[in-house]
Amino acid sequence: xxxxxxxxxxxxxxxxxxxxxxxxxxxxxxxxxxxxxxxxxxxxxxxxxxxxxxxxxxxxxxxxxxxxxxxxxxxxxxxxxxxxxxxxxxxxxxxxxxxxxxxxxxxxxxxxxxxxxxxxxxxxxxxxxxxxxxxxxxxxxxxxxxxxxxxxxxxxxxxxxxxxxxxxxxxxxxxxxxxxxxxxxxxxxxxxxxxxxxxxxxxxxxxxxxxxxxxxxxxxxxxxxxxxxxxxxxxxxxxxxxxxxxxxxxxxxxxxxxxxxxxxxxxxxxxxxxxxxxx
Length: 279
Hints:
By secondary structure, this protein is α+β, with helices and mostly antiparallel strands.
């Protein structure tokens, strides 16, 4: 105890200086709206720099795992390509390339900020409008699993609503039977989401895969969401509530893929004009 008091006595001038500085900054920050705006802008720049530096460190230490994922994905795609080459002659393949135009465009991005411990979790990506990012683009893991979708974007960054957000909604279906319902997060466990409104006559199998449907504005059909863990009956609605383990591991998420769908934008505008946004 004596040593602690002696140490505090030696640095008491520094402690008083720090305290007075904090008081001065507090009064300065609350003196006028202009000073508050300047400090807020400066703090946002500092926080953004810290997030970017921390993300760079995490990315460096995760390069080995990311390289393994990329290698596995390349092998899978090469195997699929060999199947198509065996099924079609080269001329038929070239004709197919010339006639079929994909509605989707893909863009890689890195996660510079992520949260999983709140009720409303978001991700910040290092790509923005100058890179081709648009609102409502789907966000997937490098393996193609659901992560979320773009909520807003600036020139260099994009903020995405996470699957682990109590406001998140998407349409999901059972892979084995195609019965569909609503995907949401109860806000409790980051490794459990919910598929609700599945009719009781549907055959639910633990371990079954949950996929996206054609009804979603944000996600292409067939995107893997998770696997069935458990389910319970909801007597009031004669349906099942299904507990689902998401394929995406949000605690280690560093790289993502953005997917834009021109057809969905056209459909969204048309339905908003004719039916209204609150359909």
